[in-house]
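Run Xylose isomerase-like TIM barrel through structure prediction, thanks.
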Amino acid sequence: MRQLKVYTSLWAMQPHDQSDVKLPYDQVCAMVADAGFDGMAIDLGASDVAVAHAVRPHMQANGLTPLIVAFPKTIESLEDTLHMAADFGAPFVDVIGQVMPIALDEMVPVIEAWITMADRIGIPVQFETHRNCITNDLYTTLQLLDLIPEMRICADLSHYVVDREFWFPLSDHDLGLMSRILKRSDSFQGRVASRQQIQLQLDFPQHQKWVELFKGWWREGLADWRARNPSGDCIFVCELGPPEYAMTGPDGREMSNRWDEAQVIMAWVREIWDELGGDG
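Sure, done. The structure for Xylose isomerase-like TIM barrel is below.
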C-alpha cells in the first residue's frame, strides 16, 4: 500500500510564526500532531544530538515519526548519526554532506562511502539538493547521479532555483534538468523560491507564478514516485525556515505566518496526492 506522509521540521517550529516565541517541545509536538502532520524532521545542522534526544519522547507521545537530517563534516562522522536514526525509527537519513571536494572524481568516493555505510547499518540515505554541500550545484549533482546509479535524492528544488537563478518562465532545457532530479527523488521538501529569494510568501500576488511552478514540480515528483513504488511511504517535508530564511520587514518581523503556510502546503500536497489516486 502506498501512503503519503507529510512532515514538518523542528527547525521551522523554533519559532513557528511571527511572534518570535519558541515554544517548549511538548507544545510544539502537540501542535504538529493536532494539525495533522505525520512526523517531524530533526535538523542536526540547526540543533544537535542533545536536542534530538530531548524532543524524542514528546514526538513519541504524540505519534510523530522522526526524520534525521545530517550535516556530516567527515565521511566517518555520518556513522553515529545513522545508528541514532535507526534507534529513533527514522525512515531514512537526509544527508546534507559537508565533505565537498571540488573535483567530480573526488566526490564520487564520498557518496559511495556514505551509501556503503548506510547499507551496512541498515538505514537508507538520501542526498538533499541543498546549497553549501556536496550537492550544491545542479549540474554536478546530475553528473553524480549518472555515475552512481544507487544515489537517491531528497528534492528541495528551492535551492537550485536560487543557485541557477532560473529566469521565469523556465526553458524546456532547464525544466528537463529538474525533471531528471525528480526522477531520482525518493522524498520531497516543500518551500517556494524565486530566482532571487529562497523562501517566498505563498499568498503575495507577485509570487503566484513561482507557487504554481513548484506545485507543478511537486505533482510531477509525486506522480513519478508513485510510478516507481507500488507500496511504501512517500515523505514530503514542509520546511519553512525562520529568519533569515523567512523574509522580514524593517521592524524585523516576518512578513507571513509560516505555521499557517506549512498547513497550506500540506493541504496542497494531500490534494495533489488524492488527484493522482490517493493511498492504496
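The longest strand covers residues 2-9.
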